[in-house]
Design goal:
Layout lengths: L5 H12 L5 E2 L13 E2 L3 H6 L3 E4 L4 H9 L8 E5 L4 H13 L3 E8 L11 E5 L2 H11 L4 E6 L4 H29 L4 H28 L9 H14 L10 H13 L14
Parallel strand pairs: 1-2, 3-4, 4-5, 6-7
Antiparallel strand pairs: 5-6
Bound molecules: NADP nicotinamide-adenine-dinucleotide phosphate (NAP).
NADP nicotinamide-adenine-dinucleotide phosphate binds next to α1 and α3.
Length: 273
């Protein structure tokens, strides 16, 4: 294991505590102690004896730094438990493959304190056979979810999940700010906001089905009706500190769909094609 920060320490403790033979290396050596794992004297020594190399590093710049110092990874599987972009994942795969190893990208969907519990979920992508070879070890960390053979699938999935949270939370913040500026009790408003988020939760699978099928029924409102509300929202958010949340771009898109004769379709049509 390379990196004993918050995630790395929790992972090392869990694996060592489960009886696995774990060797750790950390850039700052004094932070590598206390996990129950053996501490290696160098990066190369840490990867010498094991076929599974976990990179629990801050970011992909750190991943690149460490991989550059490991030119021979023959027979090893490298898993980056590190948040990054799709290109970060593809670059790491190219580097590891060129060094003779196999690469799995991972998304850490858990805080350190939940590692090793049922509340922890980890996303993995890369060659399925490689994932399956290490699945029993990876399952010790939390529920492993294999999300695709493309190296970048876990990074895209992981970031998209973060995006769902940011959009919902920032939408809530814009709403609370808007009503507060209008002199309305935000706590009372929040009680009515929660069910709105619930509608998105309830409809998530049906929305995904619409996308898969390429059919966009209007539901409770069609695009023409949505456009009226969206324009009012842009106006409400005009003076807020967080901008309109991209609603100008959405309004432009809806207008062009209406102009193309699709005003009777539902909101999912905005991402058609
Ligand atoms: N913590 C969370 O709740 C959480 C949740 C989900 C996802 N994640 C993701 O998990 C990853 C690890 O997070 P963390 O919370 O464990 O981070 P962290 O506590 O900041 O630890 C970062 C680790 O990276 C090492 N490092 C940084 N730059 C390096 C470099 N250039 N070369 C070698 N080592 C380097 C640090 O070594 P030093 O000790 O020498 O600085 C440390 O071991 C991140 O990608 C994070 O986004 C974290």
């Amino acid at each position: 294991m390379i990196g004993t920060g918050a995630i790395g320490t929790a992972v090392a403790r869990r694996l060592a505590g489960s009886g696995r033979e774990v060797v750790v290396w950390n850039r700052t050596p004094e932070r590598a102690v206390g996990t129950g794992a053996r501490v290696a004297g160098s990066l190369a020594e840490a990867v010498e004896g094991g076929d599974l190399v976990l990179l629990t590093l801050k970011d992909h710049a750190a991943v690149r730094d460490c991989l550059a110092r490991l030119p021979d990874l023959t027979g090893r599987t490298v898993v980056a438990l590190t948040t990054g972009t799709a290109e970060d994942a593809r670059a790491a795969e190219r580097t590891v493959t060129a060094a003779g190893g196999s690469y799995l990208d991972a998304g850490v969907q858990t805080p350190p304190e939940a590692i090793g519990t049922d509340a922890a979920t980890f996303l993995y992508s890369g060659p399925r056979a490689v994932f399956e070879r290490h699945a029993s070890t990876l399952a010790l960390l939390g529920t492993p979810r294999f999300v695709g053979e493309r190296a970048d699938a876990a990074a895209v999935w992981d970031l998209a999940l973060f995006g769902v949270w940011y959009d919902a939370q920032l939408g809530l913040l814009r709403a609370l700010d808007g009503v507060r500026r209008a002199g309305i009790d935000v706590a009372a408003f929040a009680e009515t906001a929660a069910p709105q988020i619930g509608h998105v939760v309830t409809g998530a699978t049906a929305t995904a089905t619409e996308l898969t099928c390429g059919e966009y029924p209007a539901g409770p409102a069609d695009l023409t009706e949505h456009l009226t509300v969206i324009r009012h929202l842009i106006d409400l958010r005009r003076t807020g500190p967080l901008g309109d949340g991209g609603l100008h771009a959405v309004a432009d898109r809806v207008e062009s769909l209406i102009a193309g004769g699709r005003g009777g379709e539902g909101l999912t049509a905005t991402v058609d094609g």
